[in-house]
Amino acid sequence: MIVTECTSCDEERAAGASFCEACGRKLAEPASEVELPAAKKDCVRCGAAGSVGDDGYCEECGMMAGRSRDHLEADGGPSGAAVSDRGRRHHRNEDAMWLAVGVEAADVVVCDGVSASFDPDAASDIAVRAAGELLAGARHPDEPAGEEGDPDGTADLEGLERPAGAAGLAGAVSHAIAGAAAAVASLAHTGDPRRAAANPACTIIAAAIRGPHVGYGWVGDSRIYWLGPEGPAEQLTEDDSWATHVIAMGVDPVTAMNDPKAHAITAWLGADAGPVAPRVRSFTASEPGHLILCSDGLWNYLPDAADFGSVVRDCLETANSLLGATRALVAYANAAGGADNITVALIPVRPAEPTTTELA
Amino acid sequence: MSYTAEAFQNEYLALGASEVNAIVTVTSTGGEGGRRTGGATEIIIVDASGSMQAEGRIAAARQAAKAAVECIDDGVHFAIIAGVSTAQQLFPAPGELAVSSAQSRAQAAVAIDRLQANGGTAMGAWLLLAAQLFEQRPGDIKHAILLTDGDNGERQGYLETVLERIKESFVCDCRGVGANWKVAELRKIADKMLGTVDIVAKPAELAESFQQMITAAMGKTSADVQLKVWTPVNASVRFVKQVEPLVADLTGKRAEDGPRAGRYPLGSWGQESRDYHICVDVPAGASGDEMLAARVHVMEGDTEHARCLVRAVWTDDTALSTKINRQVAHYTGQAELADAIQAGIAARESGDDRTATIKFGRAAQLAHASGNKATEELLAKVVDIEDPVTGTVRLKRKVAAEDEMALDTRSTKTVRVGWGQ
């Protein structure tokens, strides 16, 4: 899932680094690009050796031998990990994810396809790629690249060369989400009438982490949480959902969440979404913690921020790696029912050295 | 020659469900510019039994045979068999095939004029001679026309024995003239020989009917196309039916091809499109499981022309699993329509008017709902349709034998999805 050589300049990767030291490009590839080995695989269902045919079905029992998106893992070592899983009830995984990591740096994108649209898996896939590539195109802040820019200088995002601190990162995230929105909207015009009638759509959450600085943004009801050393998790995003909307207007939260419309989203990426205005924010960590990005396949089982925090903490303590903890969170959602696709990304964030001034 | 195969289905199954249905549409563009690349052989079998003297049938048959011969393309091999108590080759010399040219066709016309009606009816012997002549031309597109006006006079079981021996070795379209022949008998032949059966009520219509059949046969560019159906372990094919343009059950024609596949003969193909209904029983899967229930290949010998997949995906989302595929529903209705008509006719013959009324009522309802106007019109000649929506019909007291036979032979004719809407 993570390549070890830079595909852009062929420079060998330095130990521990995931951004190329030579050209600054990300080394990680989107997980969904992983190709299946050419040799015929054994069937995981009936055990027949080398029986999986070119079309992905077992020549013996006929079962689908596993689509590449059914379960995906991205291991960024100590810098981050992400896992996407089909869950137990859905027939395919309509979530998608992107993880690119460097030394104390990471770009993460998670998208959740809107099931009511046609080909939502295509929407989430193109969205994470578009956003991920735009985030990777933004320069690493630690890289010497001229004078520090104006923190409020978000007017010319096309020419954005180096995000300045957390606010600059938020600008890059906003730019990335706008690119993802355009990419998803373009899917309605591929000539397939079904796509035109019910255009592919998805949610998006994206975060760029550089040292202590975090920029993030969202459209829809996928969530980003911050979990500090103690206390409950803090939900950084506000769902673009019917429930959140009516709770804000004063409706009892329990009543709102039990309404069948609770999960109806009020904003999304897609041709029918109109102009997308992603909400972006930023902060600079003052204490160590973890950023958790997840689709509703996980947070539906942990609506309470205190419960969410304690489960994540348990997973982090029990597992011996970030990937292990991320897997444990996916396993938690599956054990609870796995009613939806589950995607979780875990990124540790360390506070700035005492000398660093807060920029956000 | 290029083929496409496309499957129409609702692949989502409820938990515990094990029946997978799909409509597979096979379309062929025909040969290069619609031309045959290989050879073709045509044999015309004309009943010359004594009964053919009635109503000027033999004269009409002569006209029809001559008109048919005129439609045979240059270079196609052909022969004419006169059907009496034995099979007699009328043209060319016994045991030989002529090569079509202006000259040979003119010679054939002269020979046809010598055709006299005196003798019995021996369909088994006629078909056997045709099969022997066809054997000289392996690889050719082989087509025969069988015209008769009466019952087979051979001993019980002989025709069946012959058909078992020669089945699928050539395509035979059967036509009955008048109303003294048996639909069931010709249907048996057409079914085994992958051909069609129809009534030509008036002798004067024979020439046009023959011309149509020959023109269609000359348009065929592949001799022997087959549908190969692969199914996984512990799955079984419940049926394979052609459902368009005609209903024809192919299930019993399966020839095993490897451990998990079987081939079903589709006969000869030109530029055309046909629909098949495939039903497979599979072991039920768990929620989220996806299984390949059948892989369908369009084959000609060892060459695969096209393929498509019939899938099964189990889900507990009833919104998905209860959705009925339009094609599957439509053709299930068309097959039921053919069955209802044939059951209605059988019930009427045995004097069971109550069952006949119910069956014809259901048929009227199905024909109307699916937009099968041709069948609805044929039904209206046999019963008074009072309300096609509810299927209320009354048996007519007097029905012309020709009308009932036309309904019987054409009951298998279907229409494509959407014609009724």
Automatic annotation (TrEMBL), chain A:
List the residue ranges of the region (Disordered). Answer: 69-89, 137-159
Alphabetized InterPro entries for the sequence: PPM-type-like_dom_sf (IPR036457), PPM-type_phosphatase-like_dom (IPR001932)
Q: Which residues form the PPM-type phosphatase domain?
A: 79-349
Acidic residues compositional bias, start-end: 144-155
Q: Which organism is it from?
A: Actinoplanes couchii
Q: Which Pfam family name is an example for this entry?
A: PP2C_2
In its UniProt entry, what is this protein called?
PPM-type phosphatase domain-containing protein
Automatic annotation (TrEMBL), chain B:
PROSITE patterns documented for this protein: VWFA
Segments forming domain VWFA: 41-214
Pfam families recorded for this chain? VWA_3, VWA_3_C
The protein here is known as: VWA domain-containing protein
Entry superkingdom = Bacteria
Q: Which InterPro entries match?
A: CLCR, VWA_3_C, VWF_A, vWFA_dom_sf
Please tell me the species this chain comes from. Actinoplanes couchii
